[in-house]
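Feature request, filed as a ticket because there's no other form

It would be nice if the structure record came with a short human-readable summary line next to the tokens. Right now we just get the raw output. Example of a typical job, pasted below so the devs can see what we mean:
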Amino acid sequence: MHFKKLQEEDLAFLSEVRNLVAKEFLHDSRTFTLEETQQWYQKTNPDYYVIWDNEERLGYFRLSNYSEANRNIYIGTDIHPKHQGKKYAYQAYREFLPEIFSMYDLHKISLEVLSTNTRAINLYKKLGFVHEGAKREEILKDGVYVDSIVMSILRNEFLD
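Raw output as currently delivered:
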């Protein structure tokens, strides 16, 4: 497994994965055309990394809210539905987290996950992420308000 910075040639894959998982798993349920994804990419230059297994794309990591002063960042991942349930997310996090801790000289990595996404919550617990709290009824999904669970892991909890 390896990780490559998102490139323009990855945008069709990114758009496909995002659109397939948005309704059920993401805080933002909107879907986007390839053209909209390309415009977003050119405008924002996102800090995303594609997850590869040999020559196949499995999904991607999203990094955001980096604070150099506080040495922390937010992370998220989306795995293509055809690769879900095969332990790829666990393996990808185990391999990618040390790289991100090192690359950014981080103290803490945080994430938010919908309370309805129990598979992801269990994955994060298995990785050592700690439940910090909940943003109650933060996201409206199909007419129902859902909590957003905040979790984090400190460098010494993961690397030591």
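Something like this underneath would help us a lot:
The chain has a mean pLDDT of 96.
The chain is about 35% helix and 40% strand.
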